[in-house]
Structure formats: structure tokens, C-alpha cells
Amino acid sequence: MEEKPFKVRTLPGPPHPVSPQTHPRSTLGPSLAILSLSPGSGQLPTITPPPSPPPQPGLRPGGGPGNPPPPQPALPFLPNSPRPLASLGVCGLQALAKSSGHRGSGKSSPHDTRNLWTTATQSQPKLNVPLPTVREDSELEGSSVGGKTRWSYNQKAGHDSDGGWEESDDGEDKDSFKPEELDEHALMELEMRRGSSLGGPLEEDDSKTDDEKSSSVSSLNISKHTPHRAYWVEQQSRLPLPLTELMENEALEILTKALRSYRSEIGRDHFLTKQLQRYIEGLKRRRNKRLQVMVI
Amino acid sequence: MKLKQGSFLWYLYLDKLYCLLSVRNVKALVEYFHLLDVHRKKTLNDVLFYHFLHHVTDLKRNQITIVFNMLDWNAVGEIGFDQFYMLVCILLAQENHLEEQFIFRHSRPVFELLDLDGELKIGPSNFHMYNFLFKIKKQQLRDLYHDFDITGDCRLNYKEFKLFTIFSMNKYQESQKAVKEEKAVPEKKCHKL
């Protein structure tokens, strides 16, 4: 049985904003591709993410008949490394890693999807995470892996290798929506239809005004409960907050220990020590900001 | 080697067939690497690398140094993301008892990692050095050199090593089957009763 060469192949869908085709510094000629893991590989049941709104054809990002093929594992490949071993490297992901450095500026781009959010969509009573608590820095802005799938967090019971982060395809989104939400949405639609069809010719004016009122109220209700498409597109590409918090907390612990080593080995006044210190302070500020917002 | 429970890496998982991370796991790993990349060079120096490994595993200082020297194949004193990814895959393979599959699936990169001198041949000392990572047992090593050292120079070239991985994978699968059958037999007895 021959070993497959390591190749990174892209997912079908819109090109990644930092894909090699668009990245100015990329030296990679051929298009990259990443195969994602196929679902249903016998993993533990997942804890679903914060409740999502009922599916709407116009709002569900990536929904539609043209669903991507089943995902497969990422096979990394680095063609330009001096050692063939580096073929295991992830060149596409290096491009991602490179681009992620540009994303950490804290400035919001003019095409930031959050600018598209309206105040109406910001009242989301059914979401566990209010919008202001979504990461305020622009590190993940514009990042899109063409991801049409969502994260779900799977807590391990012991060291079972079946645990971990899972994805769910759009087709499985329905399972994560609460049935009450779907019914409520369906009911609203029915009400709207009834409102338009009810009423005879003599009562037309009254029924019209009543219907208009009911339709406007129901449309307001719908707009309250159905989030803006841009918001969900961005949510698809962001990491879940619990994972982000875990990463940041762990990175802080590691870097704090590293700072002690820096101070003891190269001194407090060395520019690398100061750089690390500033970085740690920045991370702490960001974490505290996020915690404060969550408390509110 | 064990991963620290509750650490970020502990939540990642390898695909059992290909022994690689999924795209989403890799995306998370990229962000994690970016968080550790303090000096914005897309690399981790030896100090950061040491503290990272020391925090997430139970490896000792000399073992971490060996791992760093193994991964720093350009000898620049820094580890890039592709080396970091390789390391995470190795750690997860060991954590999830997928060593045989990992070595089988990625025999070329593993061979090149073991071939520290770049001589395209690996001897017993190479295996001993990295035993804490790849967990090739002594008996396996003896069988390895007894059965697969075709050239007879007490060192393995890549083809010999590849043969070894194929046979050890077959052995592993047979042992898995035997374990499953043993489990199935008492269940059948229970059903009959």
C-alpha cells in the first residue's frame, strides 16, 4: 500500500480572502485545497452551540442545493521546503498564519460585516452570547474558510480519541434548531398568510388595516428573531468563544512563564522582554474587556 | 508522554484513518500558534517552545530539547507552523494510541525526522532517542532489524522502514480484531443464557 502524497486541497466554494491566489506574498503556484474531516465518524454526541434561529432560505449562509462534498482530513504539503519532510507542513495554513498577523491590527475594515448589522438584529433574546461579546478585535475579520459548517464542542470523557471539536454540515443545521422556534416561525408565516386571505369585501378596509398591523407586528417579530445574514456568515467563520477563551488563558499562562525565563536569561531591559511584556498586557486587557462585557 | 487534561491540545483529535487534523482543528491550531507567536515572526523560539511543551505535556527538559532539535530541521533556532503542526499530530497520535497508524500513514516524514544526520538511513540509536515520542518497543526494534534489514548493514533505509511500518500495521490490526472477537464471545454467551 503506497503512502498518499501530502497535498493541501481547497474546499469548494468562494475563495478564501487570504488564500494563496489572493495573498500578495504567496509563492505557491497551484491552488491549495484543504480536505475537512467527514462527519459521523463515530464520535461522541456533541454539545450544540448557542441556539440558532429557524432556517430561512434567504438567510442561511451557504444553504441551498449546492452543498459541499463530505469533508475529509487536511493533508498538508509544503513544496518549497529544503527537506522533503516538510511536505508534511501546511503551506496553505502558513499563508493563513501569515495573513493572521495582518489581521491583528485592531482596526475594522470598511467591509466589516459587523457594520452591516442593524440595531434590530442586535436584540437577540434567544442567543446565549450577546453580540457585543463576540470578539471585538479584528483578528478573525474577513476570515472565511468558505466554511458552510458550524463548530460544535464535544467534551471528552477521559482520553477518548473520539472526542473533540466537530463540524456539522448545513444539512444538519435543522437538527440543532429548536422545534419550538421552527413552529413559531411557521405559525408566524401562517398568520401572515391568513391575514392576507381573510376578510370579505365589506370589511376589507378594516381587515386591511388589521392585516397590515398584524403583518407589520409579525414582520417586526420575525426581524427580531431572525438575525442578519452577515452576522451569521461571520459567525460561521469564527471560533467558538469557549475555545477562544481557553486558548487565550492557556497562552497567557505559557507566556507569563516565558517572560520569567526572558527576564532571567536576557534581562528585563532587552527589547524582546519588553515586547513580550507588552504582548502579555495586551492579552490581559483584551481578556478583561471580554469578561466585563459578558458580565454586563 | 501525556497531554495535560483540559489543555487546548487535549480537545483536538486526529482522524483515525489518516492521522491528521481536520480543517477546523487546524484553523483553531493556527489561531493558537498565532497567540503564542509573540514576536510576530510566525515562529516560536526555543524558550517559547519549551514553555509551551512543558505546559501541555509531561515531557522533561532534555526531551523537549530533543524534540526542538528534531523539528528545527533548518537549524534556525525557531519552529514554524508546519513543524508545529507535525508535532501536534505526533502528540495526539501518542495520546490517542495511534502510533502504529501514524507511523504507517506518515512513514516518510517520520523516517526523515528520525534521520537526524540526513544519511537516509536510521540505526537503533535513532529509535532509542525518540522512543518517548514514537513508542517503538525493544522487541519491535529487534524484530525490525532482524526481519527488515535486508541490506544487512544494521541500519534501515526508507524502503526497509516502510516494510516495517506495513507489517507492524498489519500486526496491530490483527491484534485489534482478536480483541474485538474476545469481547464478542462473552456477549454471545450472555445472549444464549
TrEMBL record, chain B:
Matches recorded under Gene3D superfamilies: EF-hand (1.10.238.10)
InterPro entries on file: EF-hand-dom_pair (IPR011992), EF_hand_dom (IPR002048), EFCAB9 (IPR042798)
Gene Ontology terms, MF aspect: calcium ion binding; calcium ion sensor activity
Domain (EF-hand) ranges: 136-171
GO cellular component assignments: CatSper complex; cytoplasm; sperm principal piece
SUPFAM superfamilies in UniProt: EF-hand (SSF47473)
Entry's Gene Ontology BP terms: flagellated sperm motility; sperm capacitation
Protein name according to UniProt: EF-hand calcium binding domain 9
Protein encoded by which gene: EFCAB9
